[in-house]
Write a structure and sequence with these properties.
Layout: E1 46-50, H1 57-68, E2 76-80, H2 91-96, E3 104-107, E4 114-117, H3 119-130, H4 141-168, H5 174-195, H6 208-230
Parallel strand pairs: 1-2
Antiparallel strand pairs: 1-3, 3-4
Length: 231
């Protein structure tokens, strides 16, 4: 492994067979399936393909909230996608999510199965489908959407970036770790300042924005406390 301080980016980047990182076996520059593997399909109208990561659990939480609220149509089958083993690159999963990321949903409640990928899109699809966990005041809908997409645009990249360079990269890079940690703390301050004056993200109403933010950013607080202990 080259000394990171002496690394000069090439003019034309080429993939190395292995960069030594923990996820080197699934890190590749092209999309599409790597192998043929059909997805299992259960008996319920909703088929969820996911993993219990901070991003992956959001949809499961919403489905359980819907069932607890009496929406029987939210019955679902959950199937484990082992991303460390490359399950997300199987042909069946790529058909549901061409971006090969969990979670992914196949809604078979209608005449034609509908695929939904990206956690925010799945949350919005289910909330609209069952008319639940959406603001009842139309004026609050833009606020809910703003916070929902704030989480989508910030948490996976920042939390994943910090986690990768802090725990999984083959060597520690101070600049990368500090940059991600600083931005994570800034985003947490955005969240803390908003919740200081609001019970939920949209005032006093529990919505899918809360589900996305609570489960998608809980690991941020671990990062924050980790950096405080090490500082």
């Amino acid at each position: 492994m080259n000394d990171p301080a002496s690394y000069t980016p090439p003019k034309v980047w080429k993939q190395e067979e292995s960069n030594g990182g923990r996820f080197a076996n699934i890190n590749r520059p092209i999309a599409g399936p790597t192998h043929d593997k059909e997805l299992p399909v259960g008996k319920h109208p909703l088929q969820l393909y996911s993993l219990a990561t901070p991003n992956g659990v959001k949809v499961t939480v919403l489905l359980e909230e819907l069932l607890a609220a009496g929406h029987s149509g939210a019955e679902y089958d959950a199937w484990l996608i082992k991303i460390g083993d490359g399950d997300q690159f199987g042909s069946g999963f790529v058909d549901v999510n061409p971006n090969s990321k969990i979670p992914a949903l196949l809604d078979r409640s209608g005449d034609t199965p509908v695929r939904v990928f990206e956690s925010g899109a799945i949350l919005l699809h289910l909330a609209e489908k069952f008319n639940a966990f959406l603001p009842t005041d139309s004026g609050k809908r833009p606020e809910m959407l703003s916070w929902l997409f704030w989480q989508m645009g910030s948490a996976p990249y920042l939390g994943g970036g910090f986690g990768h360079f802090y725990s999984y990269a083959p060597h520690k890079i101070k600049y990368a770790i500090d940059r991600f940690a600083m931005e994570v703390k800034r985003q947490l301050d955005v969240l803390d300042r908003h919740l200081a004056n609001n019970e939920y993200m949209c005032g006093d109403e529990y919505t899918i924005a809360d589900i996305a933010i609570w489960h998608g950013t809980a690991h941020w607080y671990k990062i924050k406390s980790m950096r405080q202990r090490n500082s």
